[in-house]
Amino acid sequence: MNWLIATTVLAAQQVSDKKDLYPKISELIIGAIAFGILFLFMAKWVLPRLNQTLEARRGKIQGDLEKAEQARADADKLLADYRQQLAGARADANRIVEEARQTAEALREDLSKKAEDEARGIVTRAQEEIRAERDRVFQELKAQVGELSLALAGRIVGSELDRDRQGRLVDEYITELQEIAPSGNGRRRSRGKRGGEE
Fold first, then answer.
1. 149-152 long-range contacts, Cβ below 8 Å, gap at least 24?
2. Band of the pLDDT at 193, cuts 50, 70, 90?
């Protein structure tokens, strides 16, 4: 620290004159030449390189900004495509659900129609079987009633009747019984039979 104080005091003693305060002309010329050389050097080599570096840096930043903008545009496009595909998928899903509902409804109606047709067929077959059985029983009863009435009439009359006359008597008797009977089917059949005989 003492050394610094001593240097300061010595410098103050040497610059005590006014003429020492202003620079000398030779120093100004040398300083101007040095400044000119430095300026030419800076203008010729340093500033162009600095400008190139700055231009490269600006170009890189501009390129990065353009890439970022392009990436954002691509992302927006992908998002729009994704939303469009999602809307399309929803529409497809709704369409598939609607088609499945319509198919199920058509299948239900088809099965219902088939079941009704099958039930009608079963009822029709049952009615035909009942009619056939009734006709068979009716024919058996007719034959039995005919034989019984002939046997009874033969005993009452005391002689045998011929077969044709006997058959006609039995048919007339059965027709009369059918007209008296409460069954509508028997009445219709007897009327049809009667109409055929008349």
1. 149/173
2. very low
Measured CA to CA, the distance from residue 41 to residue 49 in angstroms comes to 12
Whole-angstrom Cα distance, residue 57 to residue 67?
A: 15
d(CA 179, CA 123): 28
Q: What's the rounded Cα separation, in Å, for the pair 90 and 97?
A: 10
Residues 6+ apart with CB under 8 A from 174: 142, 145, 190
pTM higher than 0.85, yes or no? no
Q: How confident is the model at residue 20 (pLDDT cuts 50, 70, 90)?
A: low
- Residues with Cβ within 8 Å of 197's Cβ and at least 6 positions away in sequence, in order, are 171
